[in-house]
Design goal:
The chain is an alpha+beta fold. The chain is built from 9 helices and 14 strands. The strands form 4 sheets. Strands 7, 9, 10, 11, 12, 13 and 14 form a 7-stranded mixed β-sheet that branches. A 3-stranded antiparallel β-sheet has the order 5-6-8. The longest helix is centred in the middle third of the chain and has 16 residues, at about 180-195. The radius of gyration is 23 Å and the shape is globular. The protein starts with a strand and ends with a strand.
Length: about 325
């Protein structure tokens, strides 16, 4: 897509960028004339969600997480921890955006956009909402990069959320810390999961503490801010274990919530996995929802994220 060039102001004649792009005399003449060089505007997608000023600027890091912590770790994205016990992550940055729910630039009102409402809450109001919902939690004094850190002391709407660590290791593990605003979104999601007889959600990671030597420049995002969860599998009330990696049966590049994808899914468990994601997307509980259809590093988990300041939804 061609870039838009803003004409130079004043008495200067606008010189097309392409005309001087490879010509030193032309560039010198422009400078000596007192004209400022043309400014390049990034291209704007006709839908308003392309790589332009209206696009969601969520540069999501694609992460493949392994079931259990490993001492043999590769470079992790989102400034993932380099400390013992951290989940493994493969680094693969992507700035690809996803189709927004709704048509074109149609953005939902703030009142109807749960994820954005939660993302804008200060810590005190967020914790008050947890108390209003009778969610058992403990405030965490400090978790570097996390604005409103909490630990869950009980289920969300009757559904247990926890890491793959042994139960005896969870109470003090940093990998059981959530940002309060993510918890509100997960509590809403738990109401969807309950319709499908799910009683347990096991994640590979939520919070990934930054290295102690790292100088933080503002609150963390995604996992470094405890605002994202990588869900690996579910358990139902009758004891069935549903694995994202084994049971989703996706295809990279497919749109998981498109009617064609849903109608083509013949396996009941695979359809269930799509439904719990797509209903969350339709309810706008998260800003980012990535499935195994996104890319190979996400083949074994759902990445669900609340992004402060965002007014869009990406689902892949």
């Amino acid at each position: 897509m061609a870039a838009n060039v803003e004409p130079m102001r004043g008495k200067c004649r606008a010189i097309p960028f392409s005309a001087c792009m490879f010509s030193l005399p032309c560039a010198l003449a422009t400078i000596l004339s007192g004209c400022a060089p043309p400014r390049i505007r990034p291209p704007v997608s006709s839908a308003g969600y392309g790589r332009g000023p209206n696009a969601p600027q969520a540069k999501h890091a694609s992460v493949l997480v392994t079931p259990m912590p490993s001492s043999d770790r590769s470079n992790a994205t989102d400034q993932a921890p380099e400390t013992a016990g951290a989940p493994t992550a493969d680094s693969e940055d992507s700035d690809a955006t996803e189709d927004a729910l709704g048509a074109g630039n149609d953005e939902p009102s703030q009142s109807s956009f749960a994820a954005s409402t939660y993302a804008g809450l200060p810590r005190g109001e967020c914790e008050s909402e947890l108390e209003r919902r009778s969610i058992a939690f403990r405030s965490v004094t400090e978790a570097r990069g996390v604005i409103a850190p909490v630990r869950l002391d009980g289920p969300l709407f009757g559904i247990a959320f926890h890491s793959m660590l042994p139960a005896s290791s969870r109470s003090q593990s940093p990998y059981e810390i959530y940002d309060c605003r993510l918890v509100l979104a997960l509590d809403d999601w738990a109401r969807i999961l309950a319709k499908y007889n799910i009683t347990e959600v096991v994640h590979y990671s939520v919070y990934r503490p930054p290295p102690a030597s790292q100088v933080l420049r503002g609150p963390g995002k995604r996992h470094s801010g405890a605002l994202a969860i990588d869900v690996g599998w579910f358990r139902t009330a009758d004891g069935e274990r549903i694995s994202v990696e084994k049971d989703f049966h996706g295809r990279i590049g497919a749109k998981p919530c498109a009617a064609a994808s849903l109608s083509a899914t013949t396996r009941p468990v695979a359809l269930l996995l799509r439904q719990v994601v797509c209903e969350a997307a339709a309810s706008r509980l998260f800003h980012v929802l990535l499935t195994p259809d996104y890319n190979r590093p996400h083949r074994n988990h759902f990445h669900l994220e609340v992004a402060a300041g965002a007014r869009w939804v990406m689902v892949r």
